[in-house]
Design brief:
The chain contains 10 helices and 9 strands. The chain is an alpha/beta fold and about 325 residues long. The chain has one domain: Nucleoside phosphorylase domain (Rossmann fold, 3-Layer(aba) Sandwich), CATH 3.40.50.1580. The protein has a 5-stranded mixed β-barrel with strand order 5-8-7-6-9. β3 and β4 form a beta hairpin. Bound molecules: ligand LQZ7MJT6 and guanine. Keywords: Glycosyltransferase, Purine salvage, Transferase.
Length: about 325
């Protein structure tokens, strides 16, 4: 008996009020529809096979570009690109600053695939669709995932234009059951109960800090905790204060589901947030954030982010797949 059958049984036996039952059934269906379990292994495989037959690139590194940071894809050598609409199973990007192209190419001698535009939960995509490309990358042979995003800062030491290397995250939607791993586990991708204590690879974080020194941008860089909220609205002042008190350094509307799915299937992950705005925390402050401002700051710093990511890819050891690799079947 599944949860819906159980609720219907309660209704028949008059154990629960019918309105409560309808609401609960709706929520159960909704949760089920938003988990990767609503996609079969074949759907990921079909996308991976399609890409294998349409490009000779065999990427080892995948990069997901955050809002306004898609220009990184333009720096890849020997490029081949595909509109998301052409790739079987890929959803569409609907947000300004997310072009909706998958770009294959070479960066510092390493084969890469770059998402010029990501999918967000607030666009109405299920979490399985939001994270779909990550599992496709795994099937393509990718070993390392680099995620970037635009985020608002709560930490006093983080200013617009700064780069925060993500040390850890808080997946707030996961607290209320919006986790991409909910549903039957696909053992071919990873274990039922994956650890998340090493989800942002320490060695890559140290390497990025070293590269920051060489690029003379240490003044712009620090490590911190990223929190994902559902969006699409930015934070109220009370929400901002709550996040600040909880120890969140930067807040955004993406990344955590991708990283959870990547860690589940044994990918090594590096993440960075480009701080595009300070989150307003006082009622006296008349500032307010908007998406155009976010994109503007992203574009101003995109070259610096590109340099950091490019050097990191050049210097990373592609064969060290970090501590999360043990559970995968590939
Ligand atoms: O894709 P990311 O996380 O970079 O996008 C951030 C969060 C919202 O999508 C948008 C708000 O401006 O930027
Ligand atoms: N939630 C959230 N996402 C962002 N993305 C860029 N800036 C912000 C912000 O201030 N809050």
């Amino acid at each position: 008996m599944n949860s819906t059958h159980m609720l219907l049984f309660c209704l028949r036996e008059r154990l629960l009020d019918s309105d409560v039952i309808s609401l609960a059934c709706f929520l159960v269906e909704d949760l089920r529809a938003s988990s990767p379990a609503d996609l079969s292994h074949d759907e990921y495989q079909t996308a991976a096979d399609w890409l294998r037959t349409h490009t000779r690139h065999r990427p080892e590194v995948a990069i997901i570009c955050g809002s306004g940071l898609g220009m990184l894809a333009d720096t890849l050598g020997c490029q081949e690109s595909f509109a998301y609409s052409d790739v079987p199973g890929f959803p569409q990007s609907t947000v300004q600053g997310h072009a909706g192209r998958l770009v294959f190419g070479v960066l510092k001698g390493k084969m890469c695939v770059c998402m010029q535009g990501r999918f967000h939960m607030y666009e109405g995509h299920t979490l399985s669709k939001t994270t779909f490309p990550v599992r496709v990358f795994k099937l393509l042979g990718v070993k390392t995932l680099i995620v970037t995003n635009a985020a608002g800062s709560l930490a006093d030491g983080l200013q617009p234009g700064d780069i925060m290397i993500i040390k850890d995250h808080i997946n707030f939607p996961g607290f209320v059951g919006l986790n991409p791993l909910i549903g039957p586990n696909d053992d071919k991708f990873g274990p039922r109960f994956p650890a998340m204590s090493n989800c942002y690879d320490k060695e890559l974080r140290c390497l990025a800090t070293e590269i920051g020194k060489q690029l003379e941008i240490t003044g712009l860089m620090r490590e911190g905790v990223y929190a994902m909220v559902g969006g699409p609205n930015f934070e109220s002042i009370a929400e901002a204060r709550l996040l600040h008190r909880l120890g969140v350094d930067a807040v955004g509307m993406s990344t955590a589901p991708e990283v959870v799915v990547a860690t589940h299937c044994g990918l090594r992950v590096f993440g960075l947030s480009l701080i595009t705005n300070k989150v307003v925390k006082t009622y006296e402050d008349s500032d307010s954030v908007n998406h155009e401002g976010v994109l503007e700051v992203s574009r101003l710093r995109s070259v610096t982010v590109q340099q950091l990511v490019t050097e990191l890819i050049g210097k990373m050891d592609i064969n060290n797949n970090g501590p999360n690799d043990a559970g995968t079947k590939f």
